[in-house]
Amino acid sequence: MPVKKRRGDLFSIWDYDGRIAFEDIILATEDFDIRYCIGVGGYGSVYRAQLPSGKVVAVKKLHRSEIDEPAYLRSFKNEVQMLKEIPASEHCETAWVNIVKNMAHALSYMHHDRTPPIIHRDISSNNILLDSKLEGFVSDFGTAIEIIRPRFVQSNLVAGTYGYIAPEFAYTMVVTKKCDVYSFGVVALETMIGKHPGELITSLLSSYAKI
């Protein structure tokens, strides 16, 4: 049986072939070897894969223990749907010198230029992926939600990363765009000073204690 020829962009609607794409990903990551892992989240791990065409992609693989959990599968499908509806140029493409400016641009698109708006709910430095050209992409839309008005969220569904979650959310349990804005502010400071603001505060307090 002849091998199907690889042509064009395997991820475009015309050339997509799931079997070939999967085979290329397995080869590119050496069956998801830890050396290619560039991030680990609550639902899965993200791997860097360079396809035969030279294109570099980020591939998320769900944790084995969570594959059969309906809640995690729904979250994964939600993430895929969100990414499909946001233009690639709006996934927060950045260079280090423009990271704050471009993150703001990406959030502005999600919050104001899209209907209904998207609240990411987990903006953190761990969820900004950088490629070899130091272009960044907002990742992990598994907890993102579409929202029209402020929305109450049950405590067992709280999403976010410790140190980046807006303090008012802990008191009100209401999700708004401001939750993302607070998280963005933390990442902006982290980018400018080279460490999480919490680490800086701890360091300063420690220094004052020695005086």
From TrEMBL:
Catalytic activity entry: L-seryl-[protein] + ATP = O-phospho-L-seryl-[protein] + ADP + H(+); L-threonyl-[protein] + ATP = O-phospho-L-threonyl-[protein] + ADP + H(+)
Pfam families documented for this protein: Pkinase (PF00069)
Keyword terms: ATP-binding, Kinase, Nucleotide-binding, Receptor, Serine/threonine-protein kinase, Transferase
GO molecular function terms noted in the UniProt entry: ATP binding; protein serine/threonine kinase activity
E.C. code: 2.7.11.1
Presence of the UniProt keyword Kinase in the record: yes
Residues that hold ATP according to the record: 61
Domain Protein kinase: 1-211
Domain of life of the native organism: Eukaryota
Protein name, as recorded: non-specific serine/threonine protein kinase
Naturally occurring in which organism (per UniProt): Vitis vinifera
Gene field: MIK2_8
